[in-house]
Amino acid sequence: MKPLDIISFAFNNIKQKKTQSMLTMMGIVIGIFAIVSLVSIGYGVEEYMHGEMMKMGGNKLTILPIKQFGIPPTHFFTDKDIKAIHNIRGVDSVVYGWYGGTDIEYNNEKKYVGYFYGAPNNIKKVYSETGYNIEEGRWLSNSDTYKCNIGYGVAHSLFNKNVKIGDRIIVKDKKFKVVGIMGQVGNQQDDNIIMIPISVGENIFDKKNEYNFITVVVKDGADMAKISNEISNKLEKSFGDTEFSVLSAEQLAETIGGVLSVLTLFISGVAGISLLVGAVGISNTTHMSILQRKKDIGILKSLGAETTDILAIFIVESGFLGLFGGIVGIIFGIIAAKIIENIAHASGYLMVNAWISWELIVGVLIFSFMMGVISGYLPARSGAKLNPIDTLRGE
Length: 395
Fold this sequence. Notes:
GO terms for molecular function: transmembrane transporter activity. With 395 residues, the protein is α+β, with helices and mostly antiparallel strands. It has helices at 3-16, 18-54, 79-86, 120-129, 152-156, 188-191, 198-204, 224-239, 249-271, 273-292, 294-302, 307-346, 358-384, 388-393; strands spanning 60-64, 91-106, 109-118, 134-137, 147-150, 168-171, 174-182, 193-197, 213-218, 245-248.
């Protein structure tokens, strides 16, 4: 039989049992829909985070008191560690402080936000060079005490009433005057944040001589790799162990990207269970189709069709079921991803983006077609081996 004849037979068989074919494809549709939407959003967030990390620039190193993401630190940096880093040749400045979360109060409303305290002048230097900006007001200065900078979300969307320059926010029963509002970054961690001077932060949060975050600015022309190694060696002695990470912008982006990729793949794998259900459905449909068309198989064989021709018809038919299910699943998956993106952007989550590419679409289509082919192979093989005389007798 000619390839076009095989395709025509397979396509006509699907058309003759539309309802059965649609029900069979549902498992594939649901599975592909879930995978496309999840992978699209997952990789979109990963690309956004990579871009944000790269804004740090090539002359900055981030130092964290952890070896691996997800594992809590056993202890934190101290002034001794900061001094050791300062003394390294090629280091321009060091920003250190504490990132955490706390309740804040404004206009009799309480909300939970992130906070960061550090030396104001150093905060301004590093943040202004990494794409963060002050939308209104000014950065904190070293002479400030109970004053603060707030993120875009805190000012514009967190409370029922917008926070303005000169307003006061209560943190740990202390009133802080807002002197600067930061521009929108796009992720809630950075937009819902309040920055205060280190001198006040250490007192109200009772964390003197304890830091969970360090950023090192390296002088222009200095060897980043060499300084990174020197920092690691110095910290190993002052910190007391190697349970810390010294990361460049690229390394930090790769590390966070790796965590997000694993999470995306895991969630997609769970969603892929429905694909297994779809594969079983295709296999069952192919088997039922063979039982219903035994006489047709006998007639084709008596007219000269080879066993491989019969096998090809049923394999192409099951492949079409997988392919059509994949097409519908991709369409719904892309629509869902775009809806999620629009809702997220409207809510201030600019980091949530739908990543759609031809590689993703073509890859999913090939995958769904091959899943259909593999699912239908075994029942198709048994049907192709039927004895034509027995099938014509109805046995």
